[in-house]
Specification:
Oligomer: single chain
Order of helices and strands: EEEEEEEEEEEEEEEEEEEEEEEEEEEEEE
Strand content: 35-45%
Shape: globular
Number of helices: 0
Largest sheet: 17 strands, parallel
Helix content: under 10%
Number of strands: 30
Length: 343
C-alpha cells in the first residue's frame, strides 16, 4: 500500500547519462552544468561543491526548473525510451520471449533469471520475479486503484532504464505506483533514465539506486498519498541522485523516507532538482520511533515553481540531527541561496 505518516502541520527520447560509482556522485555538480537559455547565472558567496579545492565563490545557475535539461537535469528530452526505438505491442505483436511471457490475465511476467526485455510496448503490469533482469527501452502503461507499472517480487540486481512508465492520465486513469518493490526485500535494484508520469507514487524502493529519472505530472484519485520516490523503511543503502522530481500537488512529497515498516538508515539524497508536495522531502524521522541514521541530504536544489516554500508547508520535515545525519549544500532554485539545516 502507498501509505505513510501524515504531515506534522495542519492543513520520450535521448542521451544516456550513467554513473553509479561513488566517484560519480558529484557528476552533474552545479558548477559543471550551466549551459542553456533557461538558466540564469548568479554568484553566491559560498561554493556548493564538497571538494576542498573549490574557491570561496562560485557561479551557479538559477531557475533550472523552467527547463531542467538546460542545467543538466533530467526532463522529457533526455529520459525515457531512446529516440528511434521501435516498440512491439504486447501481446498483439509479441507475447513471449526468453525469460518472459504474457499472462492471459492481463500482465507480462518475467520469470527467467538474466532476462533482457527491450523494445516492448506493454499495456498492463510488468511483473518481475527473477533476478539479474534488464528492462530497457520499454513503455509500460497501466492504471487502476491498486495498479503497478513494474513490480519487483523478491528480486536481486534488476535494472530498469530508458523506459516510459505511465498511467493513462493524471486522474481516474492514474497509475498507483510506477516501480514497486512489493515485499520491500529486493536488492541491487537500479532505476535510471526513465520518464515516469501520471502516478500517485513514482518509485517505491527500500534499497538500490534511483538515478537520472524524470518523475512528474503526478496522478491523484481520492484517498491517494502522492510521492515522487518513497521508502517505507530499511537500512540497506538507498541512493537517490540526480533526478528531477516535480509533484505539483499540495500533499505528500517529492522524496520521502518513512518508517512505516521499520527504521530508516543509510540513505543518500543528492544532486536532485525537486519541487512540490506538502513537504518536498520527508527525512526519515517519526515521532515515537527510533531515530534515523546516516541520512545524507546534500547538494539538492528546491524550486518554488508550485509553492513559495518549495512544498506547500516547507522544504523538509522529520529531519533528525545527529546519528550521522546531515543536511548540506541544499539551495533554492530561484536564488541559489542556501536552505538552512532544519532545527
Amino acid at each position: 500500500m502507498n501509505t505513510h505518516a501524515s504531515a506534522p502541520t495542519p492543513t520520450q527520447t535521448a542521451e544516456t547519462r550513467r554513473g553509479t560509482t561513488v566517484g560519480a556522485l558529484l557528476r552533474g555538480s552545479l558548477s559543471a552544468r550551466l549551459a542553456g537559455p533557461a538558466a540564469v547565472l548568479v554568484t553566491v558567496g559560498t561554493a556548493l561543491s564538497m571538494a576542498p579545492s573549490t574557491p570561496a565563490s562560485a557561479t551557479v545557475a538559477t531557475n533550472c526548473a523552467a527547463l531542467p535539461s538546460a542545467c543538466g537535469y533530467p526532463d522529457a528530452t533526455n529520459t525515457g525510451v531512446l529516440a528511434g526505438t521501435t516498440l512491439r505491442n504486447v501481446p498483439s505483436q509479441v507475447s513471449k520471449g526468453t525469460g518472459w511471457y504474457y499472462d492471459s490475465r492481463g500482465f507480462a511476467e518475467v520469470n527467467g533469471n538474466g532476462a533482457v526485455l527491450s523494445g516492448l510496448n506493454i499495456t498492463g503490469n510488468l511483473d518481475i520475479s527473477a533476478s539479474n533482469v534488464t528492462i530497457n527501452n520499454v513503455k509500460v502503461m497501466n492504471s487502476g486503484q491498486s495498479s503497478f507499472g513494474i513490480s519487483l517480487r523478491h528480486t536481486s540486481n534488476v535494472t530498469i532504464e530508458h523506459s516510459m512508465i505511465t498511467g493513462a492520465d493524471g486522474g481516474p486513469g492514474r497509475l498507483m505506483v510506477g516501480v514497486k518493490d512489493v515485499y520491500g526485500d529486493s536488492t541491487g535494484t537500479v532505476v535510471q533514465d526513465n520518464n515516469i508520469r501520471y502516478t500517485s507514487t513514482g518509485v517505491q524502493l527500500s534499497a538500490g539506486l534511483i538515478q537520472d529519472n524524470y518523475i512528474h505530472a503526478m496522478g491523484l484519485i481520492p484517498g491517494d498519498h502522492v510521492n515522487g520516490t518513497t521508502s517505507g523503511g530499511g537500512t540497506t543503502q538507498l541512493t537517490i541522485q540526480h533526478n528531477t522530481v516535480f509533484n505539483q500537488l499540495n500533499q505528500c512529497d517529492a522524496i520521502s523516507l518513512f518508517q512505516d515498516f521499520g527504521p530508516q538508515g543509510n540513505r543518500l539524497i543528492t544532486n536532485n532538482l525537486l519541487a512540490g508536495g506538502g513537504y518536498v522531502i520527508y527525512a526519515g524521522g517519526k515521532i515515537g520511533a527510533p531515530p534515523p541514521y546516516n541520512i545524507t541530504i546534500t547538494n539538492n536544489r528546491i524550486s518554488t515553481m508550485y509553492f513559495p516554500k518549495g512544498g506547500y508547508y516547507g522544504p523538509v520535515a522529520y529531519y533528525s540531527p545527529g546519528n550521522g545525519n546531515s543536511w548540506t549544500g541544499n539551495i533554492w532554485d530561484n536564488t541559489a541561496l542556501t536552505i538552512p539545516a532544519p532545527n
